[in-house]
Design goal:
The chain has about 170 residues and is α+β, with helices and mostly antiparallel strands. It contains 5 helices and 5 strands, in the order ααββαβαβαβ. β3, α4 and β4 form a beta-alpha-beta unit.
């Protein structure tokens, strides 16, 4: 009898503290509350944006690549309307998240002199950084770096390849 009373008391204690539930334990209805980190939330928010490719990198970073060959003209650093729309979506997604740093990487094709391309890629990165700053992202968490033609994603022997290499990427650390 004591064992039954003790067992009932333990069950009531567990029930009242939330350690045991009498609710239906159907696995289809079970909700798991796993903590989400900023990188997965950020990547998920950008998933529906047309023209963006996100990839989660090592060290809780997300790399954003912008598709489309019209981001920049052959010899310019002015942001296209399409790139501005994509960057606005990135800024909106970042504005409500806590991130440690966002690095804008500018790239060029291989035509022309290396010194000029390095300067142009820095200008492209700076233009994107300035645009993100205008959208309210904190200056102390943004930086811009030009990479010149050193990291092509397409063949510089074709006009299409050169256009694809004229690009920016954003790497966000959480």
């Amino acid at each position: 009898m004591r064992t039954l009373t003790l067992s009932a008391a333990v069950f009531v204690a567990l029930l009242t503290t939330g350690c045991v539930s009498t609710a239906n334990s159907d696995p289809k209805q079970t909700v798991v509350n796993e903590p989400q980190n900023g990188s997965t939330v950020f990547a998920a928010r950008l998933q529906p944006v047309v023209g963006l490719q996100t990839s989660i990198q090592a060290d809780n970073q997300v790399k954003i690549a912008f598709s489309g060959s019209d981001m920049f003209s052959h010899d310019g650093a002015t942001l296209s309307a399409g790139l501005q729309q994509q960057l606005t979506q990135v800024a909106n997604a970042l504005s409500s998240l806590s991130f440690s740093h966002a690095m804008v990487l500018g790239h060029t094709d291989s035509s022309g002199k290396l010194a000029y391309n390095n300067k142009l890629s820095q200008q492209r990165a700076q233009q994107v950084k300035a645009f993100l700053l205008e959208r309210g992202l904190p200056a102390n968490q943004l930086s811009a770096e030009g990479r010149g033609p050193a990291e092509p994603i397409a063949d510089n022997a074709t006009a299409e390849g050169r256009a694809a290499n004229r690009r920016v990427e954003v790497v966000v650390a959480f």
